Amino acid sequence: MRKVTSIIIAAVFMLYLSPQIYAAARQKGGQTELVLVYEASPTYTVTIIGLDASGSWKKGSTNGLTFLCNGNFAKFTGVKLDGALLDPIHYSAKFGSTVITIKPEYLDTLTVGKHTITLMFTDGSVETEFTVLAADSMTEPSDPSKPPDNTKAPDVPAPGTGDNNMTWWLLLGGASLTALCGMFIIEQKRKKQRIAEK
After folding, report:
1. CATH for 46-133?
2. Per the confidence metrics, is the pTM higher than 0.70?
3. DSSP H helical segments within 90-146, as ranges?
4. pLDDT tens per residue, range 65-84
5. DSSP letter at 142?
6. How far apart are CA 176 and CA 166, in angstroms?
7. Full DSSP string of 161-196
């Protein structure tokens, strides 16, 4: 009796620890036997749809990432991203076997770099990685090893194109007047020298 009790306790303990183990009854020689059946964890595979040619997702994209998994949708329990449980408002889940689509609005909040996603089922899980790239930018990415350039080019006014004609005429007239005055003064000195020589 003690041996049977030990076997039952061990069986209950194993059932509690592992969902892959279950009890089953079978007929043998006219008697019913209780047997423990171990069901190996299924091997899950996952395919990602929505990555670009480099195998990455770019911020600003209007399409999310879709993960196709061969797991039984009835056994699907949730998604983890980088080890943290992901709120279902950030993804959609549907049958076929299991199709999970992460929304682009959530993907935009992720840091640039590699991320790990885990699809969880009652009888196992599968994980894969994807990479988030920065959105396209017209400016060159800054080099963190270089100090920021705080120098600013001085503001130089653009040369006028016809709106400063009056200024040029005034300058030209002033230069001409100065030249005439200079010539008049020189001529007056010459006259005085000629008169003095006579």
Report:
1. 2.60.40
2. no
3. 104-107
4. 999 999 999 999 999 999 99
5. P
6. 15
7. SSTTHHHHHHHHHHHHHHHHHHHHHHHHHHHHHHHH
